[in-house]
Amino acid sequence: MARKREEEIFADYVRRKNLKHSVQRDTILKIFLKSEKHLTVDELYQLAKKAAPGIGYATIYRTSKHFCASGLCRELKCEDGITRYEHLYGHSHHDHLICTKCGKFIEVVDSGIEKLQEELARKEGFMLTKHKLELYGLCKSCRKK
Amino acid sequence: MARKREEEIFADYVRRKNLKHSVQRDTILKIFLKSEKHLTVDELYQLAKKAAPGIGYATIYRTSKHFCASGLCRELKCEDGITRYEHLYGHSHHDHLICTKCGKFIEVVDSGIEKLQEELARKEGFMLTKHKLELYGLCKSCRKK
DNA sequence: CTGAAATTGATAATCAATATCATTATGTAA
DNA sequence: TTACATAATGATATTGATTATCAATTTCAG
Fold first, then answer.
1. CA–C1' span, A28 to D4, in Å?
2. pTM
3. Residue-wise over A12-48: b if at least 16 C-beta within 10 A, else e?
C-alpha cells in the first residue's frame, strides 16, 4: 500500500544523504503518514508527544524539513501565517479551497485554470515555475450555521 | 489627480475614526502614494527615514495598518514570508506574476480564471470570500540572463 | 565492541510583528 | 490664545514562529 511506499522513499533519502536512522523520526513519519490532514507543526508535535512523551519541538521542525527534502511533503504557507505540511506522494498538483471558519482544506484541480495561467504567463513573457491558488470562503457545513 | 483622491480617502478615514493628523503619517502616505511598487515594511521605513530621520519602525507598522483599514492598501503575504503593501485605490481586483529572481510583481487579471474559480467553489458548496493566485517564475528579462 | 558522526532535547538566538509606556503633538472648547 | 483631554510617536519590551547552538546520547560501520 501507499504508506509502505512512502516509508521507502524516506528510507532512500536517509541512505542517500548518509543520515542515520532514529526512533523519533520513525514516530513522526508514522504520524504524518497516518494523517491525511494538512498538519501544522504544533499538531504534529502534540500527536508525537503522545507516542513519544520526551520528544522535543526542534525535532519536529528538523524532521519536517527532511520530509520536504525527501519529496514526501511540502510546506504550505497560508494567509494565517501558520505553516502546514501536506502530502506529496500520490498527490498530483492541486490547489486549495480553505474554509475560514473551520479551517478545512479541500484539494481541488481544474485543468482549465491551469491552462489559463500558462497563457497569462506566456503573454507577459514569464516562464512559470510554480503557482499558488488559494480560495478562501465558507465550506458547505459552516455556511449553514 | 489620483494621488489627491487617495489623500482624501485617508483624511476621511482619520476624521471618521476620530484620529489626529500627524506629520509622520503625511510623510509615509506621500512615500507610499509616490511608489507604485509593492513595498515591504522595511522599504517603506528606509524611504521614510530619508524624509523624516527620526521616524520609528513602529510608526511604519501602525501607519500601514491604518492605510489598510482606510481601504488605501492591502497586505500581501507571499512565499518568502515578507509582507508587502499594495495600492488598492484605482486598482481593481488582480492576481500576481512574481519573478523569483528580481522580485518584480506584475498585476494580472483573467476573467476566465475568475469564473472557473467560482465554479470550482460552487461544486464544493463553498461560498467564496476571497482568493489568492500567485504565479511564480522568471520574468522576461531575467530568463534571458 | 569501539569510535566517528548523526540525532536529540533543551535552550538561546533571530526575525517579523505587536504591545507597552512615558513623552510629545494635536485639536477643540472655553 | 490657553488649557486640557486624547491621539501619536519613538524607544523598547514582548510575543510567536522558526532556526541555531551545544552537550549528551544514539546509531552503525569496521
1. 62
2. 0.88
3. ebbeeeeeeeeebbebbbebbbeeeebbbbebbbebb
